[in-house]
């Protein structure tokens, strides 16, 4: 597995907000956000916008809970945001997430996806110790990692972690 080099220079990793429990017969893929999840998605999107975190490209899993979370970001940062939905992000490996990021020419890319992959991608980018120091209890729902490429040491660094 290869860690991507710029571009992009900034990667936003947004774990979808809290999903509702599956209804009888409902596929996991089709679970929407819970009432709390809808609120948290709006809050995290607004916090990101208030901090000036605006991706050039948002790539989201096609799972309903991710699309709902991506919609909140789209509303918060503006209609000019390029949003793409990618089936491969659902139930994907770390390699798949990193390959998707690495294939982008945009300066700042946001992925909206699932755990445990989000946590594993962050760990791959910044290293195990930095991951444990920053998130000792793991990657929460509606958590947003802001990861920047530090050219002086040719490594990715966690710049911020935004939570509800």
TrEMBL record:
InterPro entries: His_Pase_superF_clade-1, His_PPase_superfam. Its EC number is 3.1.3.-. Gene3D superfamilies: Phosphoglycerate mutase-like. Keywords: Hydrolase. One of its GO terms (molecular function) is hydrolase activity. It comes from Rhizobium lentis. This is Phosphohistidine phosphatase. SMART domains: PGAM. The keyword Hydrolase applies. CDD domains: HP_PGM_like (cd07067).
